[in-house]
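Sample pair:
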Amino acid sequence: MARAQGPVEQIIRQRVAEHPNATWLKWQDVEVAWRDVLSNARRAANGLLELGVRPGERVAILIGNRPEFLWAHLGIVFIGAASVPVNISQRGLALQHILRDSRATAVIFQDDLRDVLAAVAGDLPELRHTVVFGGPAGHGADWDFDRLMSAPDREPEVGLAEPGGSVGMMYTSGTTGPPKGVVAEKYDTTPLQVLLRSSGVRPGETMYTPLPLYHGNALLVSAIGSMILDAKLALAPRFSASRFWDDCRRYEAVEFNTLGGMISILLKQPPGPGDTDHQVRVVLSAGCPPDRWEEFRRRFGVRIIEWFGMVDSPGILLNDAGRIGSMGRSGVAGVEFRVVGEDDRPIGPRQVGELTFRHPAGPMTYYENLPEVTRQAYRGGWFHSGDLAEYDEDGFFYYRGRKKESIRRLGENISAWEVETVVNSHPKVLESAAHAVTSELGEDEVKITIVAQPGEQPKPEQILDYCRGKMAHYAIPRYVEFIESLPKTETQRIQYAALKARGVTSGTWDREQSGYRVERA
């Protein structure tokens, strides 16, 4: 039975042929050799086939950072199904939307999410199979993960004319609507390979990531990227500023990636002699605050390579020249970038407009169940990023915010919709609007502006108590303000720009100043 092999499987097999006993994965005190990577991927693939998953179907993964996420993802890829990594902090309507919209036929989830999944599973008609990691089968789980991995280590017996994609299907937060599923039909990793080569990481060296595997940065740049470079991957359960450099030393890392506020958070740690006592040479950064670039580089003795990319469409800007504050220049792997005005026509340097880009092979992705949104995103043959940017006379591009009012906090994109949907369901709330306010860490904080039901006077603490367990922990607002009415247009659309300009007022409640704590769910 013929089974086509995708590029990631081919790379793994090549590494096994070259050095089967060499380490690929470092996880806590365990090292996993290439031969075991292939073995685990094949056992997961065969387990999925026994479970009833077939090529072309979608399998959602609700597991945090750990090796089992990778074995599940690779097993899905090996049988030509589509992996759907899901943020483990998602709850309620947003989680239900992702699983229903993706038409996931199977979900592999960690045990502490059993009740979370059970709360939405009743409205998922496509869902047929569930596998739990870290707990027993039953109570909403057909199999446990050990049962999945007990399948034989042999070639998966499934016919596959076209190989499965290494990217699968990833959900990106909408601005004011629900998350959108990005489907990669023929995702090109050539721009990624240029980024990886710029890092200077050599075969056998170690790349470190504490970023979540359910996001593209860790899964594509670090995990798959380390495979492409024949490097090792050191994986941490989560980001910890206090343990960060200890991990880098422990794993002998020469590279790591950062997103947004990570650089500011690391700089807030007390300086010490260990700041340069490590082997890290280079940081692949997405969103380094310009005013902290030099401080970070000097204090920790690393080179910063800034870049811009999106899961939504392949193509990157690359700044390997050290131009402080710039996302990079166009032309990497033939992908063109330009800045356009409201009429979609290119504008000149030092003018702010929307950042658009075009792959030489044309559109390579689409949004699941959203043909009109896809058409609008790729209108005129250029992908419209929704980001504002400008460029200088040397061709360096600079980020200037979002065209629409989305929120980015702790490296996570948050849509106003996912916050408002929960808050608006509170019995004492008439309507609300979620928007960004500037954070001292260089990204955003979430503010919710609320109009209470007539005669009601809810407390900010009551609103946040209500949000717990109904949305991702990072989406729970820091700021709450009650006002008489929301600013709106003549067509009754909320004027988010006016709310953002209003910012934090004297009447705004701040949960950090009040001592209210939000724990990770």
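The chain has a mean pLDDT of 93.
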